[in-house]
Design brief:
Layout (H helix, E strand, L loop, with lengths): L2 E5 L2 E4 L4 E8 L6 E8 L6 E6 L6 E3 L7 E6 L4 E6 L8 E9 L13 E2 L3 E6 L1
Length: 125
């Protein structure tokens, strides 16, 4: 079975940076669009960013644009989220997700078939 395991979370001061990693295992990494979602306390899960398999095209939420960068290392079956200039409102549990590369809509959670357990990111002021 597919397993997604996030790592790299923790506590960071506003303005600082964190890099999240998501390791994919159980099936071939090929063909999957990978995405990051997050759920802030008391809020619904929201889309952060995604990256395609076929083209490497990236998709960013408004909140992420200009600050966060999603990337993937296909040789290592790993997807990353580099988060810079972090804000208190970035505090959330971050989830890695995988789904068919052709599936739409890109930015909604029901599009994705596999999910990691989530990892806490806390930004302090």
């Amino acid at each position: 079975q597919v397993q997604l395991v996030e790592s790299g979370g923790g506590l960071v001061q506003a303005g600082g940076s964190l890099r999240l990693s998501c390791a994919f295992s159980g099936r071939t990494f090929s063909g999957y669009r990978m995405a990051w979602f997050r759920r802030a306390p008391g809020k619904e899960r929201e889309f952060v960013a995604a990256i395609s398999w076929s083209s490497g095209t990236t998709y960013d939420s408004v909140a992420a644009k200009g600050r966060f960068t999603i990337s993937r290392d296909n040789a290592e079956n790993t997807v990353y989220l580099q988060m810079n200039s972090m804000k208190v409102e970035d505090t959330a549990v971050y989830y890695c997700a995988a789904g068919p590369d052709s599936s739409v809509p890109i930015a909604v959670d029901r599009t994705y078939d596999y999910w990691g357990q989530g990892i806490q990111v806390t930004v302090s002021s």
